[in-house]
Every structure is written in structure tokens, then in C-alpha cells.
Amino acid sequence: MMSACALRKPLVVAPGPPAFDVTVESLKKKRAFEGVPALRGEVRVRIKRDGRKVGGFKGALAYRPPDTMRLRMLTPFGTTAADLVRVVGRTEVFVPGKERLYVGWTPPLKEPVGAEYSAYIDNGWPVLDVTSKGELASRYRFDPATGKNISIEAFSGGEGQRALEVRFSVYDGNVPGIIVFDFGGLEIEIEMEFPEVVEGLEDRLFHPFEKEDREILPLEALFSGK
Predict the structure, then answer these.
(1) Is the model's pLDDT at 222 over the cut of 90?
(2) What is the pTM for the complete model shown?
């Protein structure tokens, strides 16, 4: 698991007070993808490790908010370079060229059963916290001027350790055009090109990969570049 200190530094003080009411109900309605059942489309993917770009691909995304996705990254020849499936925290990445499958878990973005909410302002930035059984599960931050959801932080462990951050920008309605998954040492930036909002996506798109005759490695090995 990535350490909290490996993730980016906290936001600086906002330039002015929020231009909207900071309440639980108002912030819940402003979350990224709120009211969007599913979407799909072509994407551009950029991968950074320790702040350096290590790869770039075109690909295809199928996404069922808040935490179920399939991301297929393609080579310049149209073959699959890597295939990622994430379902409520469980993440698998298959690399066909090496017959290698990375399997692991990161904190889910889906809200836990019995979630409790609190809304407040942190250095000028509107914040919505989600807690479960007295522990912080996730934290949403919003732009004080536009009200757009700029990030989600997911936490794990009893000490509230931040293990995943997802950042959003370039919105069209409630759909951000750029999504960055920040695992600490590894960043995956997804730029959507003409995303199509759909009513649903087939469950088979998100099935786990076959394990037979493949080298199985922990997801952390991919994060560290092994």
C-alpha cells in the first residue's frame, strides 16, 4: 500500500469564500458523475512514475460510477498493451505481451453501508467527508468558485491513511474530461474523447481475468515498476 506522504501535498489556501452553500446535500449533488449511470468512449492515457512520464496510449474506457471500470490501453498497432479492470477497489491489470497479471486491492470509492457525512470548509476549500463506523472512508474536495468536484481521497486503516487520490478537471456538466488516479508512486491520467453517457454496461466487461497459465504478481509490483 502506498504511504500517505507519497501522495501530493494538500491544496493551498483558496483565493476566496465559496460561491454556494456548503452543506451535505449541496455537496453530494456536486460530486463528479453524480446522476450519470454509466459511460464509455475513447481515451488517451498517460502514465507517470515518480513524476516522470513512462508511457502513453490510446484506448477505450467503460465506466460505471463510482468505482467499476474497464480500461483497455492499445499499442500503435491496435493490439492490447494492457487491460485494467477495477471493481469496488479490487484491481487487476493484465499485460498480454508478458502473460502477466497484477492483482490487488486499493480502498474503494463506493460509499460504505451506513455512511455518515459532514460538510465544512478547509482553508477556503469546501469538503465533504464520508465516515463509516467512526473511521474516515473518503474525502471530496470542491472548487470554491465553480462548485466542481476536484478530487476524491480514499483512506484505509484505523489511522485514516490516505492510499488513493482521484483528481478531476475539464468538466462537461457532471462529467470530467480528465481523471487522474494517483496511487502515490504511480499516476494514471485518463483524458476522455467524446464520452457517451449510457443507461448501463454489460457485467461481462468487468469480469476478473483468467488466471490459468499466467504469471500472477501483486499490484504493488506494478506500482513500483517491477
Answers:
(1) no
(2) 0.87
Per-residue pLDDT tens over the stretch 125-183: 999 999 988 889 999 999 999 999 999 999 886 556 788 899 999 999 999 999 999 98
What distance in Å separates the CA atoms of residue 119 and residue 126, rounded to the nearest whole number?
Answer: 7
Closest CA to 193 of 72, 61, 71: 61
Residue ranges and CATH numbers for the domains of the chain are: 14-198 (2.50.20)
Closest CA to 206 of 75, 71, 80, 78: 71
Three-point CA angle 167, 170, 173, nearest 5°: 105
- Measured between alpha carbons, how far is residue 16 from residues 59, 95, 225 in Å? 39, 46, 41
Q: From CA 204, how far away is CA 101, in angstroms rounded?
A: 18
Q: What is the pLDDT of residues 71-118, one digit of tens each?
A: 999 999 999 999 999 999 899 999 999 999 999 988 888 888 889 999
Strand partners, 47: 55, 188
